[in-house]
Amino acid sequence: MWNRAKYLLLGSPLRTDHMAHKKLNKIRALAAFSPDGLSSIGYANQEIYLGLLVAGSAGLSQSLPVALAITALLAVVGLSYFQTIHGYPSGGGSYAVASENLGTLPGLVAGAALMIGYVLTAAVSLAAGVDAIASAFPWLWPHRVILCLLILLAMTILNLRGLSETGTVMAIPVYLFLFAYLSMLAYGGVLVLIQGPMSLARAAPPALRPLTLPLMLYTFSSGCTALTGIEAISNGVPAFRPPETKNAGRTLVAMALLMGTLFLGSVGLTQALAVIADPQETILSALARRLLGNGPAYLVIQATTMLILAVAANTSFAGFPRLTSLLATDSFLPHQLTHVGRRLVYANGILLLAIATGVLIIAFGGDTHSLVPLFAVGVFLAYTLSQTGMVVHWWRDRGRGWWPKAGMNGAGALAAGMTLVVVGVNKFVEGAWITILLIPVLLVCFVSIRAHYQDVSRQLSMHELSPSELASVPSPSAVVSVSSGLPSAPTVVVPIFGVHRGVIDAVAYARSISKNVTAAYVEVEPGAGQRVREEWERWWPDVPLVVLPSPYRSVVEPLLDFLDEIDQKRKDRHLATVVLPESIPASRWRRLLHDRNAQLVRNALLDRQRRLGFERLIIDVPYYLR
Q: How far is CA 338 from the centre of its chain?
């Protein structure tokens, strides 16, 4: 039943060698990586409007100057990340760039900040999308949290199905949004040219406070959320079809131009038409209502706004799993986050993002205005470290034309750093303190996880041993899961998941009960089998090792097929005995950091025996870690 549901929701498993066919062309890539950046007008415009509204018409008249300053910042940061794409064609996210050029600690700070930014971006995008549709249908306003969670569930399933399906589905709302909004902005621009701008003094409410520099800086810091998502393409360069850097660079330029056009056009029209929103309405909804009335055209605009904001979370779904995979590869996060799932995506990272986003939506009641102050700090901290790292990269490289490249990234680092200070100071009380507190908490987690893996590596290391010492290893005590008498000449299979101290006792025990011992290694990652074989032959040259390819990345199924093959070759109808080594961490929380491959194999064997009615001897040989 469960397997049928998985096939229905997620599709059939894909072979590892199909990974190259899951690359995205520029059309699909723009849809997969740009929704966050394109849709940021859904909340950035709202924050600018709310920030200046308290100063009445004098404040609202400064909307366009604030938007111009933010657009200039967008241009600088966008050009900086264009440099990053060409400097790091393997995927130059903030973590990779900062780690390589600034050191481990700055890299971890960037990684923590970007992780928080991705989660908050997903939460804010979903909340803003629901706000857009609730502006058209006010009766939905009390049900915003439920709507957010339902859309989040749909996004999670789509991303678990894989890049190609995600890019295809995301392309529809992205290009509908672009067509609808660009058409509306063009119509509004013609209208302003014909009729001229309207008076804010007549439409705006009375000022509650004077227009001051601190208020302008506060509004600027709020509107800087328009830059979110600009890094996603540089972090996802490997997802593009060849030539990856060229296609990724062109897609980034197209995205930045569209972001600037949508942002400046919508803010400019809002100011020129003196648009004022009702309390339970977004400023974009009020702009669309002013231009298009309450008819079908207005509903189309609101529907496409909701869809683009909903799928804007896809930027996080594209970037967050890749980031956590990089951190896990360096042992700063659980290694399970490096695993590629049945549809050639980092399924564990996708699920982790979905859970964290859902918790945030519930905790903040799906309120966009409450969520926005939290994530700008993390985003601009990651931007600053990434661009500073790129300056160091070009300085070390010193190739042809390195000065202009370093200068561009230096300008990006300076602009992002100054924005970070402004955002941190102005948004600290409103929620930025939560992000500032979470970053060191994540750093402690990173360091603790890395320390655990290093300790386990030391305990399992065989560097202090010599092959001759293994011959004198005594046979250990073992746990027999299924008791049936051993045949006189049993065939023994020892499944291994690496060559380390954890398998020494299992091999010794297997050799003590039979001369017909075979080790089996399931090759989940292409090329790993040869490395394991070379290491194995160094320690146990007289014990054959069979490498079992696993094109669908399953540890269990190739091993079961291998056991069936061995059983069929025996003429005495005795089933092969399985001696199963298992490294057992010292505490429960540490077990969460490790794959449970031995347990998966054991459970699969026992389940098969229950279903088919035969008994296979399964002998557990534990190795207890300290």
A: 11
Cα(182)–Cα(168) distance, rounded to whole angstroms? 21
Q: How confident is the model at residue 9 (pLDDT cuts 50, 70, 90)?
A: low
pLDDT digits (tens, 9 = 90+) for 314-366: 778 877 888 898 899 999 999 888 887 666 678 899 999 999 999 999 999 88
Rg (CA), the chain: 29
Q: 11, 226 in Cβ contact below 8 A?
A: no
DSSP 3-state helix, strand, coil percentages of the chain (rounded to 5)?
Answer: 70, 5, 25
Which uninterrupted H or E stretch holds 545? strand 545-549
What residues are paired with 548 via a beta bridge? Answer: 522
Task: Measure the CA–CA gap between 234 and 93, rounded to whole angstroms.
Answer: 6
CA distance 414 to 386: 11
Cα(461)–Cα(585) distance, integer angstroms: 15
More confident call, 81 vs 311: 81
Q: Work out whether strand 491-496 and strand 577-584 pair parallel, antiparallel, or are unpaired.
A: parallel
Please give the Cα distance from 37 to 207 (Å, whole number).
32
Hey, which bits of 89-184 come out as E strands? Answer: none
Burial level of 47, CB count in 10 A (0-12/13-18/19+)? buried
Tokens of 433: 């303190």
Can you tell me the distance from the alpha carbon of 152 to that of 129, in angstroms, rounded to the nearest whole number?
11
Long-range CB contacts for residues 458-463, cutoff 8 Å, separation at least 24: 459/501, 459/625, 459/626, 460/500, 460/501, 460/502, 460/583, 460/625, 461/500, 461/501, 462/499, 462/500, 462/501, 462/504, 462/539
